[in-house]
Amino acid sequence: MSVVDELLQFLAEATTPFHAVAAMAGRLTAGGFVELEGIDGVILEPGKGYFYTRNDSSIIAFRAGQASPDQGVRFIGAHTDSPNLSVKPNPIKVVHGVVQLAVDVYGGALLNPWFDRDLSLAGRVNFVDAEGNLQKQLIDFKKPLATIPSLAIHLDREANNSRSVNPQRDILPVLLEARTEDAVDFRSLLARQLRKQLPWVGDIRILDYEMSLYDTQPPSLIGLDEDFIASARLDNLLSCFIGMRALLAASAAHWSVLICNDHEEVGSASAVGAQGPMLTDFISAISANNVENRRLRTQAVMVSVDNAHAVHPNFSDKHDENHGPLLNAGPVIKINRNQRYATSGTGAALLRLLAERVDVPIQNFVVRTDLGCGSTIGPITASETGIDTIDLGVPTLGMHSIRELAGSRDPAYLETLLTGFLNRIA
Ligand code: ZN
After folding, report:
1. How far does the centroid of ligand 1 lie from the alpha carbon of residue 376, in Å?
2. Which of 215, 249, 278 is the last residue of a domain?
3. Is 76 exposed, middle or buried (0-12, 13-18, 19+ CB in 10 A)?
4. pTM
C-alpha cells in the first residue's frame, strides 16, 4: 500500500483524538515498539522503540538511541485534535417531532460545511461496571445517525449573501423522529452501543462521556488525476501519521522522539496539551541529572509539524504574493518574526540543507503583513523547553472545514524530509 492509501485508512479510523492515539498505538506496536505505563524507572534498551499515552488522547513515542540523549535528540511534534461539534452533558431536545442533540463547538470550526452531512458519533465513555469499578472505553457508532439540515433558500432569500451561523441555535443535529412519549436518554444510547461493541461488559451505567460528531464520508483521493486528498482532520492527523512513519524508520544510533498532544485547537493549556508537563517530564526522565537535562535541551532540535495555508485559487489576495504555498509543491516552513511560529533562522537553515540533501522541494509561508497570524504547538513547546524549533507543515486548503484538501504527493515529501531529519541527513 502507498503512504497515501495508508494515510486514508488512518484518517478513517482516527475519528477523535482518542481513536487517533489508539490507531497510532496499534501501528507502533506492530512496528515493534513497546507500550509503557510511563517512563520513570524503566530500563530502556538502546535502539528499541517505546511509547506511552496520557488521557488516551496524547502520546509520546520514541526510539532510545545508542548515543546518550545529550548528544542530541531530534523531536517531532504534532497535535491529535481537530475542531468538531461535541455533545453537551444534557444533550436531548425534543422539538417539532424530532429529537435533537445539543452540541458545543470545539476549537475554531468552520461551521457552514457541517450542514447536510451524514454524521456519526465517536469518543470515550466513562462507566461503572457490574462490580462497581470505574472503567473507560472508546466507542464509535460508525454509521450515519445524525444530520444538520440547512434552512431552505425559500425561507431565507439572503442566504447566499449574508447567512451567518449561530452556534447555540443553528447547528443542533437531528438524531431521530420523536415517535413516543418515552424520554430518550443519551447515556442509555451510549450504554447500548457499548454493549454492542463489547458484549462482555454486561450491566453498566454511563457516568460521563466525551463524544463528538464526525462526517461518515470516508477520506478519498480526488481530482481527475487524483492529485488531491479530501478528508476531515487532515489538520493535524496527517502530520501525526507521517511523523509516526518517520519514527518507525528512524535509525537506532540517536534518540528520536514523536510527541502528539491533544488540545492544540483550544490553546494547548491542559494536563495533556503542549503547555502541560508531558514533554518536560519526558526530558527529565531521560536525563541523568540537571546538567544533562539542560545540555539535552540546548543540543536538541524539534520540528513542529502542522498544516500550512496553501494559496486558494479563488481567494489568492489572502496571501502575500511571494508567500503563497501551492499544493503538491512540498512542505512549507512557517515563519513569523513575532513568534506566532517558532522557526528560527538556524532551524530553517538546517531544514533547507536537509531538503536539498533528500531532494524534497520546500516552500515558505509568512502571513500577509496586514492579517493576524495563527499559531501552533511550536512557540509553546519552544518556550516550555528552550528547544530550537521549526514550524513546518504540508499546504492545505479549507483548514478547519469538516472536509479539508491537501495534495496527494505532499505526504511522501513530508515523510522523506522527516525521516531524513530523524536520521541526521542534516
Ligand atoms: Zn493544526
Report:
1. 6
2. 215
3. buried
4. 0.97
Q: Are residues 244 and 381 in the same domain?
A: yes
CA of 168 to the centre of ligand 1 (A): 24
| Domain of residue 96, CATH code | 2.30.250.10
Q: Using the mean position of ligand 1's atoms as its centre, give its distance from the Cα of residue 366 in Å.
A: 16
> Does the structure show a pLDDT above 90 at 373?
no
pLDDT at 422: 98
Indicate the pLDDT class of residue 202, thresholds 50, 70 and 90: confident
In the predicted model, what is the mean pLDDT of residues 305-314? 97
Output the CA 101–ligand 1 centroid distance in Å.
27
Sheet of strand 134-140, all strands in order from the earlier edge strand to the far edge: 134-140, 119-128, 205-215, 84-95, 98-106, 174-177
* Bridge partners, residue 305, by sequence: 392
> Is 386 a member of any domain?
yes
CA 96 – ligand 1 centroid, Å: 38
Ligand 1 centroid to Cα of residue 166, in Å, is 24
Query: CA–CA separation, 389 vs 356, rounded Å?
Result: 19
On the question of pLDDT at 29 being above 70, the answer is yes
Q: For the domain that residue 37 is a member of, what is the CATH number?
A: 3.40.630.10
Which is it for strands 332-334 and 98-106: parallel, antiparallel or unpaired? unpaired
Q: How far is the CA of 75 from the centre of ligand 1 (A)?
A: 17
Residue 237 CB neighbours (<10 A): 30
Taking only the tens place, the pLDDT of each residue in 163-192 is 899 999 999 999 999 887 667 899 999 999
Ligand 1 centroid to Cα of residue 374, in Å, is 9
Instruction: Answer whether residue 304 shows pLDDT above 70.
Output: yes
**How far away, in angstroms, is 36 Cα from ligand 1 center?**
27
Give the structural domain span for 129.
84-215
Q: How far is the CA of 12 from the centre of ligand 1 (A)?
A: 18
